Amino acid sequence: MVESTPGTTIVELADGVFARLHEGLTNAGIIVGDDGVLVIDSLRVPSFARDLIADVKRLTPKPIRWVVDTHSHWDHAWGNEEFPDATIIGHDNARAEMLDVDLVEWWRERAATSGMPWSDEAKTVQVTPPSLTFDESMRLFLGNRELHLRWFGRAHTSGDIFIHLPEENLLFTGDVAQDGGVPFIQDGYVRDWVGTDGRLLELEPERFVSGHGPIGSFDALIDARDFIAMLAMGVQNAIVDGQDEATAGARVTEAMRERFGGWRGFERVEDSARYAYRQMKAAPDAKPSDLR
Ligand SMILES: [Zn+2]
Fold first, then answer.
1. How many angstroms separate the CA atoms of 202 and 277, rounded?
2. How remote is the CA of residue 45 from the centroid of ligand 1, in Å?
3. What's the 119 CA to ligand 1 centre distance in angstroms?
4. Domain 1-135 sits in which CATH superfamily?
5. pLDDT tens, 133-177?
6. Pick from 183, 163, 185: which is nearest to 235 by CA?
7. Cα of 175 from ligand 1 centre, angstroms
């Protein structure tokens, strides 16, 4: 076991490829290349990023040269300012979301008023968007190791990317898929998400590291897809059936309880279903912020 910040566990998935799991909080990835390190997600506030940097230093003296933001959300990307010498990489849409002042301030308000240990620090974060962005695909080579960065469509946000290591058959999924956990849906695009999950499954990774929760198997990735598909289909059918939002939310939740009731965050399903209902009734390009 590699020593790391209290509350975190570092797991070596392949030679030089690590998952840094943070119990109840946000995970990160660490990939050690020939002459530099790539970090996946910079975490919620600068002090969390500094802990992550300290843990990287326990693994290797090599400098952190790249940070990949799996998406724009504060708990994944608001440590970016602690990496001034690294190139911050993300999706075009993630950059746009991090430059959206209203969206950033909405997240800041939530983080700053949550009464959590990081609340005060969240007030002063200098949100630092990716400086290197792409649309559908980008390859990075750390020595002989290939990292394929992919975007398969909107899902948990408009700019979720996946880090695929084809040789090692590993995948970092950000918040699009968890092993046994309900993702935050009210910044998402529920209909698109089902298609994005379908393309994600085509990669057939042996294991995946999510932004939250444990390392998952390919079967857990299928479950994550099924969860979103069942939510989307259930809401769609409720609309066709003429149900109002409250009825749809309650019935979809009950229908999902048998298979998914034991998942982390299941108590959020009803609100998620009601958000999905509003989204499916709205214009296709309605912003999530208009639907909350
Ligand atoms: Zn997220």
1. 28
2. 14
3. 17
4. Ribonuclease Z/Hydroxyacylglutathione hydrolase-like (3.60.15.10)
5. 999 999 999 999 999 999 999 999 999 999 999 999 999 999 999
6. 185
7. 5
